[in-house]
Amino acid sequence: MIRVVVTLTLLILGMALQGQYTAYPVGRVANHMFFSKQHGPVFEPGFKAYNPDKESIEFLKKHKKQLSFKCVLGFWCSDSKEHVPAFLKIMKEMGMDEEGYRMYGVDENKQAAFEGFNALRIEFVPTVIVYYNKQEIGRWVESPKETLEQDLLRILQTFLDK
User: Fold this and answer.
1) How is the chain split into domains, by residue range?
2) Is 155 helix (H, G, I), strand (E, B) or coil?
3) For residue 99, which of 13, 32, 56, 60 sits 20 to 30 Å off, Cα-Cα?
């Protein structure tokens, strides 16, 4: 019995030292986790307080059926903690369901072990990848130039103006 406990302890310690063990969600993250007992205190206040620009939301809503989003974040990252609540509020105001936007957590090395992750080419978090009819049309990375919804609107308008 002691041998099993020692082996498991060494295995977990080894994984932690190699950066393979994390207390943060990594991979696909269900949207309800941002409002859970564990993560709600970090994300919920910003979600409740954020008031997105209504004109930007209305324009985005007109293209809701063609739009989809992937948001890659680090639960450990201060930029993610600051800006992801706004992203979640924008998705709610647009009426997007979980199929319209997917959330993915990464570890401190900005890595996650799920199929297709490397193809996302994530360098900084948070990163919101914007798709129009399943084709990537742009990215919002780390912090907004104006507001998040205005930056998303600009990505869409640039694509539509081509």
Assistant:
1) 22-160
2) helix
3) 56
Strand partners, 71: 103, 128
Q: Residue with structure tokens 């409002």?
A: 35
Residue 144: cis peptide before it, omega within 30 degrees of 0: no
Residue 23: the pLDDT is 78
The whole-number average pLDDT for the span 6-22 is 49
DSSP E strand stretches across the chain? 27-29, 67-73, 101-105, 127-132, 135-141
22-160 fold? Glutaredoxin (3.40.30)
Residue type at position 141: V
Contact between 66 and 132 under an 8 Å Cβ cutoff? The reply is yes
- Report the alpha-carbon distance of residue 92 to residue 34 in Å, rounded: 13
| Nearest-10 Cα torsion for 148, 118, 33, 52 | 10
